[in-house]
Amino acid sequence: MHWIQGHRPPQPTATTPLWTDHDAPHVVGANPPPMHCATDRDLRLAVIGDCYAPRSALDLALPAVRAEDWRALTRWPGSYWVIARRGPWTAILTDLCGSRSVYYTRHRGQVRWATRTRPLAELTGAPLDDAALAAHLTCPTVTEATDHRTAYRGIHRVPGAHALVTDRHTLRIVPYEPEAPTATFPEAAAALRVALYTAVAHRANTAQRLSADVSGGLDSTSLAMLADTHGPLLGVTRLDSTSPNDDPDYARRCVAQANHMRHVFPSAGQDARMFDQLDAAPSTDQPFSDAARWAVTTSYRQPLHEYGSSLHLTGSGGDTLLEAAPYHLAEAYRTQSRRAFRTRVLAFAQVRQLSPRVIARAARAQARTACRDALHQFAEQIRTPQRHRRTGATERIAWYGTAGFAVWLTSRARATLAEHLHAQAEQAQPDLPLATHRAWSELREFGSYQAELEQQLSHDGVPTHAPYLDNEVVRSCMALPVSHRSQPGVQKPLLGAALRGLVPLFLLTRATKGAYDGNAYSGLRRNAARLRTLLTDSHLVERGIVDQNTVRDELDRLVTGVPGRIAALERLVSVELWLARTLDSAARVPSESGGSYAR
């Protein structure tokens, strides 16, 4: 395990300085990731991670460092950090979605930064931030609630598409990517075609032994079919008897058209369920929402080890970038013709078997709701949640969605989070384009998820790449207005238009989508005793964040098969596992005044 930090660790450990300067940032840990560095007088530039630009491109980029043109340093293929220095100032750039994490804090009058939070927490003695944990559990995609806070008080995350610029004593968080949509649908499709093909080609041409997810869904299977044009690879498809769907059928049809792909359905561990072997999941730097899926993940990846894969492709991030969130209807009402709006409403309502009139009325109401009012409404929903109300499509159309987890919070935790959101609402920009803002917030939350996913998967020794999260791929998708991500009868129109002729048409026009809820409920029943023990000894309950009785009642209902907040339960379990390991790895972390809800 490695990380980058802006100072050399005081304790003896394997470190690699980026430059020869005495105060150069260091990569900590054995077997550091690929690094490319360039220098010229007072200029320094380092690119760390999976960057596929030629070395000469870095030398040519030094003028951009002098001009502080940070965006120019993020146009190369791949996924990587950029660290640039000009005189006393150092800029640390995360990628557009934030999967290349950068964190910062202040300590003894200096700005300290690293790509992991734990080294900073150990340096500063930072306590856990219970208010931040409550926000991340309840509404992780709402930037106004999470406020780029981490699980440690005083340690913040640099949001995707931003740079941390510091001279060690002061800091600025600088955006380097314009967030307003700038492309028409044909322009975005053309850019995505080039970016995605390039992202896959570089990886396929450099990997010694390549493997890829072939789920049968659009995202991962499209990548696998692109990789197939470059040479041999192993395609892996999941079979799950608990959740019958047509994913395997689409996978088989695509593989039949491949030229170089060897295809397998993992036979080992097909009985694996969510919530199995909870204590076996590797620890991550921040709480990781998929920790409870480790048993399923490892059984699925077993063929990668048998094949000797040196690089594995996944479709991670595709849904976030390519699917239209329900609030796209509100944007469509604002920006498109009434005829186009009605067509979208009818398609939305038909798929969900809802009244078009109800959907249209809800979309019009949201279209007339400013950010300030939407945040106030969301805050009150958290303060006084309805315990037994089922969330319908009309509630999901709301700009900030629903906050089902709020039912499980203690009254004090709900009040604290609601007050924070009310305060944020008063500072909201009156003309903020909400659809674009929400799309970027969701992308950045997914970037933080991806960072922990890759850290967890690194424990099994197979590097896992997500080409959809490369900067140029993200740019091409985010340049399109959110409402244009949706077309009646088409699952992901932008991807279909971009890859037409490169990927089988029957896949690009697929209208169905596989679901795996059966695995979750089956795993829940099988591991009910372990989950009840976890709640009995709950750190979240002890810290005054979660109400034990409310969660236990919900667990009892879920175990009987009653539909409920199973995704929220998964988040809760994952945070419990993280807290147990964090608190058990050292003396119990103290809480500052106001940092804990426990009385």
Automatic annotation (TrEMBL):
It holds the Pfam family Asn_synthase. Its EC number is 6.3.5.4. Pathway: Amino-acid biosynthesis; L-asparagine biosynthesis; L-asparagine from L-aspartate (L-Gln route): step 1/1. Keywords: Amino-acid biosynthesis, Asparagine biosynthesis. Residues 1-22 are annotated as: Disordered. It comes from the Bacteria. The keyword Transmembrane helix does not apply. Residues 192-579 form the Asparagine synthetase domain. It catalyses: L-aspartate + L-glutamine + ATP + H2O = L-asparagine + L-glutamate + AMP + diphosphate + H(+). Belongs to the asparagine synthetase family. This is asparagine synthase (glutamine-hydrolyzing). It comes from Lipingzhangella rawalii.
